[in-house]
Write the structure tokens for this entry.
Amino acid sequence: MDKSELIKEINRLKKEKNTVIMAHYYQMGDIQDIADQIGDSLALAQWAAKTEADIIVLCGVHFMGETAKILSPHKKVLVPDLEAGCSLADSCPADDFEKFVKEHPDHTVVTYVNTTAAVKALTDVVVTSTNAKKIIDQLPKDEKIIFGPDRNLGNYINSVTGRNMLLWDGACHVHEQFSVEKLVKLKAEHPDADIIAHPECKKPLLLMADFIGSTQALLNYTINSDKNKFLVATESGILHEMQKKNPDKTFIPVPPNDSTCACNECNFMRLNTLEKLYLCLKNESPEIIIEEAIRVKAVKPILRMLEMS
Ligand code: 13P
Ligand code: SF4
């Protein structure tokens, strides 16, 4: 099937099966264009909690599908490619994290949404990069907190909240790859541009940023700013929506280290394609399945996050 046939078939199947297609901002442009809803991790969870569709196709990575399934257990949740993992979630195996939590029994456990359902089941409250500061600010000032798995986001949240959270030593292989050296060069070439960065980036890069925020916050910043040019340090999929919302502004992706490529892409996010989206709608597979014992534990910290957001 060519692209226009695929799009036609996806739209037909979607209606026939009362399906909602949700996509993260890091998906390829053609998937974002066909989705009913596109957003950041928080928005995807909020939509999944209240959708009236029978089937959710989550075009994103595995943990995003799991979060949707945890919140909507009676719906079928499909992800076009189940191999779409996340290096940050992988950097926090549930068994090791459980040991860490047990070693610090007097701590409240806060985890970033980029984790497996099994890690969420060990968590008191989940956060995303959109609401992390707001949620941590609501916890008592003297509360001892474990934060996992992202050490860069954890360090950043410590710096903006004045906390001293105990950090799990995990990271995202995409956001850690941005080159400060190439960014310095780009900024010299485009002194009029604002540098905007996701808090999963390393500290030396964040220190150069004019604005730090989640994918949604970065997008909002580009819409509301008087500036016309932005150097963007997050996965380059977000440039698609930034350009759509700001057709007259210029967006330049910050390149990774060790590559001749100008963009920094998440190989996991890019596993989903229009063809796989079509096949997953047609076959209603691959489906996210979660053990009920894990799900009932994992849903509590996610609902707490939604209440505190
Ligand atoms: P957002 O919550 O900002 O969309 O981030 C998700 C993610 O995977 C970042 O790498
Ligand atoms: Fe995970 Fe990083 Fe990809 Fe986001 S960009 S899904 S944190 S590997």
